[in-house]
Design brief:
single chain; five-stranded antiparallel β-sheet; about 350 residues
Length: about 350
């Protein structure tokens, strides 16, 4: 039963007052529990979960008694591949023969569900498959960090984004309550992303859907829910059915457009890029939103023009390299399925 607001406030006050003693006892008993429960920011966070969200102090004490802050999580957060590798190396991670053939096999295994979702939402089946391929190698590499450890580490020991990850830590507890999950058993990436599609807790709560009408939103193991939720994420972010994602481009000798910082904003149009001397081919109308992407390829600078659907993929991960890797993997998967379908 959820207590009244007055009762929750009293419980929060008592919890905040007692957590120092409880934390000292727990840390003394198990010094490996490295998250310091005496810290004011930790105490305040737990008290807010009690006062604002109706969690029981005893429940939170039991959970946080076992939470660990891990340096490896902080190290991984400071050097993601999207920030430390050029496009030529980043692409080589995801456009491998093994990942492509694995995507073709995965597509054939789940073709019925994928095509059903594609028809319903307008998001191509190969795009959905490629997201799972890039994120977790088709569900085989979903991460081994306990989500509560990962998010607590980043919430309290990673100042650059502590506010964001405190929000995600709160969302993790709300998600576990919503979906009747054991918060201590949820595992995922170093950033707290969960399941084959790697939804962070807020995305899980806001964008996941029940793909098979069983009354649950299971992004940990139910492929119907996983595919439907990935597609829904793109639909919410304005995916345009039957429109292109991106096309290669080149700068004409008289181009007025220099190399860009790859701002993920659709501030240009097909027409405005053409006026700036960006040469590319598309059937989209002149006023269609577009962006110029500049990447360091194997043979020098690569130019791409991304459209609304490219932008939608960058909402999943704020990286032009990520979006292009998903797009190119999706093309390779689609080509591979056509080849195998045509085989005698």
């Amino acid at each position: 039963m959820i207590p009244t607001l007055y009762g929750r406030q009293r419980a929060a006050a008592a919890f905040a007052a007692s957590i120092v003693t409880a934390g000292a006892l727990m840390l003394g008993a198990a010094p490996a529990w490295s998250l310091d429960l005496e810290r004011p920011d930790v105490r305040d966070f737990l008290a807010e979960l009690v006062a604002n969200d109706g969690f029981e102090p005893q429940y939170l004490s039991a959970i946080f008694a076992g939470v660990e802050s891990k340096q490896g999580i902080i190290d991984a957060m400071t050097r993601p591949a999207e920030k430390v590798k050029p496009w030529s190396e980043y692409r080589a991670i995801f456009l491998t023969p093994r990942r492509i053939s694995g995507g073709v096999d995965f597509f054939h295994t789940h073709e019925t569900e994928l095509q059903q979702i594609a028809r319903k939402t307008g998001v191509p089946a190969e795009i959905i498959a490629a997201i799972v391929g890039v994120e977790t190698f088709y569900g085989t590499r979903t991460g081994s960090y306990r989500a509560v450890d990962a998010l607590a580490t980043l919430a309290f020991d990673y100042p650059p984004r502590s506010k964001f990850f405190r929000g995600e830590l709160r969302q993790l507890f709300l998600l576990a309550r919503d979906e009747q999950l054991d918060v201590t058993q949820l595992t995922g990436s170093y950033a707290g992303a969960l399941g084959p599609p790697q939804f962070i807790p807020s995305s899980y709560r806001n964008f996941s859907v029940d793909g098979n009408n069983d009354g649950r939103r299971n992004l940990l193991s139910d492929w119907n829910d996983i595919f439907a939720s990935i597609a829904n994420y793109f639909v919410v972010h304005n995916w345009q059915p039957a429109q292109p994602v991106a096309v290669p481009a080149r700068l004409k000798p008289d181009s007025t457009r220099g190399d860009t910082e790859n701002e993920l904003v659709l501030r240009d149009t097909v027409e405005s890029l053409n006026r700036q001397g960006v040469d590319f081919s598309t059937d989209l109308p002149a006023k269609a939103p577009a962006m110029l992407i500049t990447l360091a390829g194997e043979e020098g600078t690569e130019y791409w023009v991304g459209f609304q659907n490219f932008y939608a993929i960058t909402r999943y991960n704020r990286s032009p390299m990520y979006a292009l890797a998903v797009f190119q993997l999706s093309e390779a998967i689609a080509a591979g399925t056509r080849t195998t379908d045509a085989a005698p």
